[in-house]
Amino acid sequence: MLTTLIYRSQMHLTQETDLILLVEKANAENAARGITGILLLKDNVYLQILEGDECVLEQLFSTIKQDDRHHQVVELMRDYAPRRRFENVGMMFFDLNKLQTADVPDKGSPA
After folding, report:
1. Model confidence band, residue 78 (pLDDT cutoffs 50, 70, 90)
2. Is the pLDDT of residue 84 over 70?
3. What range(s) does the BLUF domain occupy (predicted)?
4. What residues form DSSP beta bridges with 79?
5. Rounded Cα distance, 48 and 64, in Å
6. For the chain, how far is it from start to end, CA to CA, in angstroms?
7. What does the domain layout of the chain look like in residue ranges?
8. What is the reported pTM?
9. Model pLDDT, residue 49
10. Fold designation for 2-95
């Protein structure tokens, strides 16, 4: 059953290249598992929305909770979904530390 899982964690990576490699590896592995979603970073706090098969997400989340790079992992929401919200994006990453307010589209303005 298609499931959406949202969690937050703190991760301490020493270099930006470590983060880029982590995102690239996760992208490839998630694509192979049929997992889509987005990953947001603000300071050292991550918020991730994952969507995919319930059993596959459970295995992935268990791995994330056991990963020494993640601290204070908190599951915020888990629910069944009638369809994917991020079907065509794979796993998008947004570093909110680098994103300017002007770059964020206003919901009321045309994109």
Report:
1. very high
2. yes
3. 2-92
4. 4
5. 11
6. 33
7. 2-95
8. 0.82
9. 95
10. Alpha-Beta Plaits (3.30.70)
